[in-house]
Design a protein that fits this description.
The chain is mostly helical and about 60 residues long. It has helices at about 1-45, 45-50. It is elongated and about 70 Å long.
Length: about 60
């Protein structure tokens, strides 16, 4: 009887892991799409005049 319970628990764990991995793939795909859209939207502005790259300069200007 203990063997059947352990087998059932193993099947449930494997099923849960597969279900979780499927959801994580979808979440990763959505986050990648949002990152690409954000990257493309940010690239449309004029980055030279916005001063976004000067933030890390050492001159302090």
């Amino acid at each position: 009887m203990l063997m059947w319970i352990l087998l059932l628990l193993l099947i449930l764990v494997i099923f849960g892991f597969g279900f979780t991995m499927q959801i994580l793939w979808w979440v990763a795909a959505v986050l990648l799409a949002l990152w690409v859209i954000g990257f493309l939207m940010r690239g449309r502005g004029d980055s030279r005049s916005s001063g976004s790259r000067r933030r890390f300069s050492r001159s302090g200007r």
